Amino acid sequence: QKEVEQDPGPLSVPEGAIVSLNCTYSNSAFQYFMWYRQYSRKGPELLMYTYSSGNKEDGRFTAQVDKSSKYISLFIRDSQPSDSATYLCATRMGYSTLTFGKGTMLLVSP
Amino acid sequence: GAGVSQSPSNKVTEKGKDVELRCDPISGHTALYWYRQSLGQGLEFLIYFQGNSAPDKSGLPSDRFSAERTGGSVSTLTIQRTQQEDSAVYLCASSLSGAISYEQYFGPGTRLTVT
């Protein structure tokens, strides 16, 4: 079992929909949780970063972490065609390197 | 300012040849990371440099892979005797330090195809 599991999709939604992207992880020692967005032929860029269980909001994006169930979510409200990309969840322990999920491809149609 | 740059952007090589991939991190960033992204495998850590410390090579998949970082800046990832399974996008990232609070900035990657 990979340390971070993520459904590869693709996930297709109409413009304006609420999108829910999810990951599960197996190592309870992971302390930090991140979501990256990657456009085609580009490197990943950091979207959201959280440390503890709970919610963190930034504009249309909300990151949610439930450490008890080892579940990470990213919600996108009022999705736009420009949100079409691959979304990667990532986790980290202290000074260790990032462990990534495989990424979920999101397609938002106008 | 300038972001992380990588060269070449694309590389096609024959099986058995050696290749060198280059990464120019953001100026002043002491931490540098190499990752590999392949279809179906996601993003995998390869090697991590922090300042003058010995690199963390724990992610290198075989002894055909090596990397160096000269003068604490530019890094080169070398793959010897390339195999078809080495075909992937190789991504470099840098951050101000290796501490968790510092964001990793990724370059656009080098797409390697081994024929």
List the helices and strands and how they pair.
The complex is a heterodimer of chains A (110) and B (115).
Chain A: E1 4-6, E2 11-14, E3 19-25, E4 32-38, E5 45-50, E6 54-58, E7 61-66, E8 71-76, E9 85-92, E10 99-100, E11 104-109
Parallel strand pairs in A: 2-11
Antiparallel strand pairs in A: 1-3, 3-8, 4-5, 4-9, 6-7, 7-8, 9-10, 9-11
Chain B: E1 5-7, E2 10-13, E3 19-24, E4 31-38, E5 42-50, E6 65-69, E7 75-79, E8 88-95, E9 105-106, E10 110-114
Parallel strand pairs in B: 2-10
Antiparallel strand pairs in B: 1-3, 3-7, 4-5, 4-8, 6-7, 8-9, 8-10
Brief account:
The complex is a heterodimer of chains A (110) and B (115). Helix content of chain A is 0%, strand content 55%. Chain A contains no helices and 11 strands.
What does this structure look like?
With about 110 residues, chain A is mostly beta strands. Chain A contains no helices and 11 strands. In chain A, the strands form 2 sheets. In chain A, strands 2, 4, 5, 9, 10 and 11 form a 6-stranded mixed sheet that branches. A 5-stranded antiparallel sheet of chain A has the order 1-3-8-7-6, with no helix packed on it. Chain B is an all-beta fold. Helix content of chain B is about 0%, strand content about 50%. Chain B has no helices and 10 strands. In chain B, the strands form 2 sheets. In chain B, strands 2, 4, 5, 8, 9 and 10 form a 6-stranded mixed sheet that branches. The termini of chain B are far apart. The mean pLDDT of chain B is about 90. Chains A and B meet through strand 5, strand 9 and strand 10 of A and strand 5 of B.
Computed over alpha carbons, the radius of gyration of chain B is 13 Å
Q: What Rg of chain A do the Cα atoms give?
A: 13 Å
Largest interface: A-B, 22 and 23 residues
Structural class of chain B: mainly beta
The amount of beta strand of chain B, in percent, is over 45%
Can you count the helices of chain B?
Answer: 0
What would the keywords be for this entry?
heterodimer, A: 110 residues, mainly beta, 5-stranded antiparallel beta sheet, B: 115 residues, 6-stranded mixed beta sheet, 4-stranded antiparallel beta sheet
